[in-house]
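SEQUENCE-TO-STRUCTURE ENTRY
===========================

Subject: a protein chain together with a token-level encoding of how that chain folds.

Sequence line: the amino acid chain in single-letter code, read from start to end.

Question of interest: how does this chain fold, as expressed in backbone structure tokens?
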Amino acid sequence: MSVVSALLAAPLAIAPIARAAEEEFDPNTVTPGVWGFIITFGVMVAVTLLVIDMTRRIRRTNYRAEVREELAREMAEAAQAEAGRSGPDGPAPTSDAAGTAADGGRAQPGASDDGATPTR
């Protein structure tokens, strides 16, 4: 038998096997069954939980980014306000209407209001 005749005879030899397989397989009666349902349901639950967790993480990340931007903006505004208050010689001393110093009115040791040296 030559190679060519063997190749021509191969479909004829496989035909009965293919017909037998077609007879055994009925697409209307084959179903995944209970195990197929359980596995599909488990995958669906796992995907749902992963989507919920991902959504929570994305919201948390977005919230943290918004807070960082707000803090950076507030720090920039505070730095700009501080730069606006200070002159070329440094920050200007401030006092309120009652004449209290900016340091809260704490007296330095050994200092008096009239400039005289304290006595003991």
User: Anything to note?
Assistant: The radius of gyration is 43 Å. The helical segments are 3-24, 33-85. Strands lie at 86-87, 90-91. The chain has a mean pLDDT of 76.
